[in-house]
Specification:
4 helices, two-stranded antiparallel ribbon, mainly alpha, 2% strand, disordered C terminus
């Protein structure tokens, strides 16, 4: 029994050492990956700064190579599109733009959350509100008008009905004439 516990203790020690080594190895790998990410982010920041410098030269009208100028023009077009989309979002939400900083402010805000400028709010007048009774009356009138107007199928049926009646009348008249002719013929 003593050997069993000695073996168990030895195996537990080996396993603990193995797990400890693997944990240290995983921590070291993670540390190295973090350093790589930091270096990659620094490269991205530097590339972005380089791009900003070139773009500022483009905006200032300085001479750039054709490829650089094409990239700057594409950026400028996208910025204009972004501004248009932001304006559409403001309109959809009912937001307003701050008069001081130009940023979008949610409706109902008294002050701009970006610059602290007081937001001018217009007080709604009676003309801004719609009376529910007026809407109900308008809807009822529209429904009545629609009921009174003949539908497209009704308009098509009416002209067809008249010629059929006329054709039926024409059919009946010759039959009546032939009966008269038949009755008159034997008398002769």
């Amino acid at each position: 029994m003593k050997t069993f516990f000695e073996d168990l203790t030895k195996r537990l020690g080996e396993t603990a050492e193995f797990v400890g080594n693997k944990a240290n190895e995983a921590m070291e790998v993670q540390r190295l990956k973090n350093q790589i990410r930091t270096l990659e982010r620094n490269n991205e920041d530097d590339l972005a700064e380089l791009g900003r410098v070139l773009y500022e030269k483009f905006l200032n009208g300085e001479e750039l190579e054709a490829e650089e100028e094409a990239l700057c023009e594409a950026i400028q077009d996208r910025e204009e599109s972004i501004e248009e989309y932001n304006e559409q979002i403001v309109e959809l939400r009912g937001d307003t733009n701050c008069a001081a900083c130009g940023k979008s402010i949610a409706k109902g805000m008294a002050y701009c959350p970006y610059c602290g400028e007081k937001v001018s709010t217009s007080v709604p007048t009676d003309a801004d509100f719609v009376d529910e009774e007026d809407i109900v009356v308008d809807v009822k009138e529209t429904v009545d008008e629609v009921k009174e107007e003949p539908t497209a199928t009704q308009e098509k049926e009416e002209p067809e009905d008249k010629p059929q009646v006329q054709a039926d009348e024409l059919k009946e008249e010759p039959e009546a004439q032939t009966e008269e002719n038949v009755t008159e013929s034997p008398e002769e």
